[in-house]
ADP-ribosylation factor-like protein 15
Amino acid sequence: ETHDLLRTTEPCFRALCCKGPPPARPEYDLVCIGLTGSGKTSLLSKLCSESAENVVSTTGFSIKAVPFQNAILNVKELGGADNIRKYWSRYYQGSQGVIFVLDSASSEDDLETARNELHSALQHPQLCTLPFLILANHQDKPAARSVQEVKKYFELEPLARGKRWILQPCSLDDMEALKDSFSQLINLLEEKDHEAVRM
């Protein structure tokens, strides 16, 4: 009887002990762009559980590994000053997705500049097929435009038709919503991964 018992438990035991470590979380390389003051650094710092206070504008670029439950995002954040934006495209190579942060409470002039930069990115040969997460930041400010206003002003429907993009409102006050936006982006990245495997 004991012998039978051993025989029946053996496969279960083997299954338990030979399972090995859990599978590694996939890593994705993303580029994060947007004008100076749009809040890129602060948002990424908060996602990494770092303090978003006394954040200094990124002058060149910085890389952060942003951990999520089902993936790790290696985010290359590019400075958004006038004299740096012309070099953005040098850093696009190898990107698997794009995060574009805009200040939804900014002046009309800045909003127009942001729109032009987003249009350039959406049409850039190295980015045009990638998933985009567009974050309308500073929603907690009184002057913030709604997501619908941003969508219309940025002409996203005609421009991004057929592309994978998500437009979401965000602010530092609502980290749950921000994490949810990134979860949606991770889903798009996974989908693109599966398609590449099938091809």
